[in-house]
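User
Please review the sequence:
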Amino acid sequence: MGSLGSDNIAELETNGSAFPLNPLEPEEFRRQGHLVIDFLADYYQNIHKYPVRSQVEPGYLKKILPESAPNQPESIETILSDITDHIILGITHWQSPNYFAYFPSSGSTAGFLGEMLSTGFNAVCFNWMSSPAATELEMIVTDWLGKLLALPEKFLFSGGGGGVLQGTTCEAILCTLTAARDRVLNKIGKDQISRLVVYGSDQTHCALQKAAQIAGIHPANFRAVTTFKSDMFGLNPEELQKVVSADVAAGLVPLYLCPTVGTTSSTAVDQLPGLCSVAAEHGMWVHVDAAYAGSACICPEFRHYIDGVEGATSFSFNAHKWFFTNLDCCCLWVQEPQALVNALSTNPEYLRNKATESQKVVDYKDWQIALSRRFRAMKLWMVMRSYGVANLRNFLRGHVRMAKLFEGLVSSDKRFEIVVPRNFAMVCFWLNPKKDRTGSGLDRVNELNRRLLEEVNSSGRMYMTHAVIGGEYVIRFAVGATLTEEKHVRCAWKAVREHAEALLGEHKRLQ
């Protein structure tokens, strides 16, 4: 790897002929593109050989790479060689068949190629005029997907609502919270923002609190309503009603509720019908966050998890999690697109055009935080067309079957316990041979599981993450990587048992 070093601009000019004639010269692009595709195909073919969680130490790359950029061009072969030798070491391999951490980022050939096409066109799709196909395809695929989810007609363009592809759930929540905020403040006065209250549960993703901070909600007016094991850690409408009633009595204004279908900690499902009823009593915006589990709801047998969504104002899920559409692609539907437009639109002279002024087109810049946006619809369209609904459903069902397999293996060993019921394709379990659950006993079990998880992950054989639910440190086993097969699940369980036996043997020797 070269660097700028002591070279000067004169040298650059003298050797200028070394540069390609044009950074987008078609034949050189073709040659390099083939090399990169082959490189990635080999990567996927061999990905199971890499430690799943990166084993490098902080700062490792700075010790390897030059301190400054190269003055002269370097070949794609040299760059790919350095990626093999240096970069792959520092990657946690989310596409590994032995990846069971966080939630999946299930890529696919179609998603990758759709991303290539989007990147290749490199269109900046802020309004209809800037790229009509990008806007209209996005409208079509969000309606397609909304119909697959059996969303109420009012969420579709055909019913007066509409869908938009955001980057992440964080953006979807921030956009809808901003729209809710402005809708209420336009009624009660801009100076009343300190009275607005946002509600989630103690299991709701931290994206909600972050969005509330950005939107100017007073930190004291963020509510994380307590959930209970008796409700499988789903938000109970009665608990919400208590908190909301107390806020109203104190002169505050309930603004926004974010129920979750498939929480990060345990895939708990909040009680949508009752929660929407409570919100309706107080005029709240209800945004349903189904970031992980929404994908599964295209399967008829899982659709009931979003029953009650007809009472919501907006709904989102991440196609880049468990819908085989490479990062990033968050699908958001709203009943009232104008609420987003009112809160997020700007119309400078340099963006004025006849199409916008005709009011016959959608300008997606007014549905999101940023002005610029990518052609995300291309990859979602590619995924849905390349695999078809039947196969997409079967991919999802396959992951659920593998999670059930792992659940059964855990349940067959009396030293382990399933901590919360499995809803989708994630199993929450822990090692608890003495069934301790209180006081110092619970502390010991929590520490035992913390050590077990770190031992497993440090081995590189697989990767899982944890959550603390009701004070219990649980290990999360999330099936969803595209390359995962039953053999990988069985090997994962074998690894867990082996490390557990080693830890328990160590504890016995120390006693």
Summary: The chain is about 45% helix and 10% strand. The first strand starts at residue 162 and ends at 166.
